[in-house]
Every structure is written in C-alpha cells, then in structure tokens.
Amino acid sequence: MTRLRLLVICFLEIIFSCLLITGHTRSSPPLLEKHVALFIFSDSLFDAGNNNYINTTTNFQANFLPYGETFFKYPTGRFSDGRIIPDFIVFRVTIDSNIFAIHKPRITHGVNFASSGADALTETHQGLVIDLQTQLSNFKIVEEQLKKKPGDAAAKTLASNAFYLIDGGGNDYFVALTTNSSVLQSLYSKKQYVDMVIGNLTTIIK
Ligand SMILES: *[C@@H]1O[C@H](CO)[C@@H](O)[C@H](O)[C@H]1NC(C)=O
Ligand SMILES: *[C@@H]1O[C@H](CO)[C@@H](O)[C@H](O)[C@H]1NC(C)=O
Ligand SMILES: *[C@@H]1O[C@H](CO)[C@@H](O)[C@H](O)[C@H]1NC(C)=O
Hints:
Helices cover 39% and strands 7% of the residues. By secondary structure, it is of the alpha/beta class. The protein has a domain of 135 residues. The site of one 2-acetamido-2-deoxy-beta-D-glucopyranose has 7 residues, from helix 7. GO terms for molecular function: lipase activity.
C-alpha cells in the first residue's frame, strides 16, 4: 500500500516536477566532446540509491525486488525496475555509465544528491529524507573537497561547466494533499502553500 503510494508519488512528480537543466550554454552540441560534471538535486525521480544509506523507513527505500529487476537485475535503490532519467543523461553525455550516489563519489564527474521522498520544504517527510536544502549543503561540501583536489581553479571551471539537474515540488504537494495534514486546512491557503514551495525552490536554484 505504502509502496504503491510511493510509485504514485513518482508519477505525480512527473506532473509537478520542475525540471531544469542549466549550465553553460554553447552553440553546438558539446556534450559528446567534452567531459562535464553532472550534479543532481531531486527526489525519487532521480535518486539512484542515496536513501539506502540514511536512517529511514522502507517506505523511502527501494532496495528490494522487484525494483531493479528489468535492467540492473538487482535492487539499486532506484524507485524503478529499470533506469531513471539521470542514467540516460549520463549515457548521453558519456561521462561514465555509473551514476554516483553520495557515498561512492567520483566527484569530478559529479554527484547525485537526490533523496526519495524529499523536496523543497524541510517539513516534507522531515527526518526521513534528505531535503533539497540539505542536498545543497552537501553540494557545498563537495565543492570544498574539489577546491582541495583538483584545486581552486579547476574546481571553479568544473562547477561553471557542469550540468545541474534539479527537480522538486512533487512530494511537497503530495504530502499536503494526501495525508491528514492541517497544512491546507488551517495553516496556509493553497496559494500561500504553492508560493512557499516555489519560493524555496527559487532560493535553492539561486
Ligand atoms: C534511526 O532512527 C530510529 C527511529 O527514529 C532511531 O531509533 C535510531 O536511533 C536511529 N539510528 C541512528 C543510527 O541514527
Ligand atoms: C483526520 O483528522 C481529523 C481531525 O483531527 C480526524 O477526526 C480524522 O479521523 C483524521 N482522519 C484520518 C484518515 O486520519
Ligand atoms: C520556505 O519554506 C519555509 C517552510 O519550510 C517557509 O517558512 C519559508 O517562508 C519558505 N521560503 C520562501 C522563500 O518561500
């Protein structure tokens, strides 16, 4: 039931998600020519297994079959039986066929910070997921590591040429609409709530 619910979350998120690919704009298709790092901030749409490593409940983990069955042949932590969008992007930009979870980073290739169940508001599944704000803090930690190795200048170039893939909002709305939450009943109007989600996403993107 709850697992089904998470699958539903995935689908809802496709509707709600705000998918941004930013980075260096260049005229010709550059991706196959050059190494670019990929940094990902998201929820179950793009989580490649980070929640396997955090203290959470099985509702927020996909480390059992049939997850992974079709493509990987074992459960990776992806909320999918096949690949997720970042896997295809990684393939397309040929940086590495591996998608990097926080805990096994080859950080010069980028890091996937996504956490299933997470989103823009800290309150969304608080304590069970890595919210986007924390994902951003984790990115800053990685930036510091990059400044040590390969060094300041290289880190700067890497960050400014990198691809940033950000998705969020789906779980914020899902939580407010599906749990017996007082959020939309007494705390906020729908507009205020949406403004808050968008406001937090905007802050994070900036
Ligand atoms: C994990 O969470 C449970 C329930 O909240 C708690 O009892 C336990 O101490 C936590 N474990 C760690 C290692 O933080
Ligand atoms: C939702 O909350 C109201 C008020 O606290 C309560 O009366 C009701 O039983 C709750 N419904 C569910 C499905 O938990
Ligand atoms: C971000 O969300 C918090 C609640 O988690 C809210 O209090 C705050 O006003 C929001 N920030 C913006 C810029 O909308």
